[in-house]
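Thread: quick sanity check before group meeting

JM: Hey all, I'm pulling together slides for Thursday and realized we never actually wrote out the predicted structure for the chain we discussed last week. Dropping the sequence here so it's in one place. If anyone has concerns about the input, flag it before I start.
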Amino acid sequence: MKKLVVLLAMAFVASGCSPIAVNTIDHHVLHEEAMASSQPEYRIGIGDELEIKFAYNPELNEEHIPVRPDGRISVPLAKQIKVAGLTTQELEDLLCQKYATELKKPEATVIVRGFNAQKVYVDGEINRPGLVPLMGPMTALQSIAVSGGFKDTARVTEVIIIRRTQEKPVVAILDLEKARKNKDMSQDIDLMPYDVVYVPRSKIANVDLFVDLYIRRMIPFPLPAVIPTPAYANPYSSPAY
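JM (edit): ok, ran it. Output follows.
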């Protein structure tokens, strides 16, 4: 399965471009990271849209508040508040603290109206490529099913997962044919926000274009200001190409 990654590196050489450091790792590592990062309670993310209501001061109510790329929102009186990573309850408590000196009864309710931060991008030989909402645990096969399923030309045995970190992108290759036939369900890993799921053609084509779109430009939606860098040092790691 490393054949595809080698071809990507060759495409850089052929095009005269300097190769981007890509760390290929075992798919189990990405799955374990996704499982470890799952939260029992939703946390606000960059790109989400919030609504804030004050029980006793409706004049301060705000709708359609976007969470900016720096993870902050702008609200009256309290001005700039960093909200990315907070639960709605934590933000409500923070607002009550911020407004305590301005209001007699600073009772706030926070509603997440748009979950724009929780998405993955699915592309390649599928029927409906594009952004897929990640509202809860979702596997690679499930994201492809939501996207209309594989085309007949899909290389199901070499589906590429790209995950961005602060230092370099990491790539794993899945044999989803084994997962579909219940031979190896570990191939169908859980996804994380901002993951890219790319299904290549049965015969690899336009490799240089693929590299440019999904490695050089990376992810087709805004990334958070800070992306945790997982510790990928493990027995399954492969050398960077």
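AS: nice. The longest strand covers residues 108-114. The chain has a mean pLDDT of 76.
JM: adding both to the slides.
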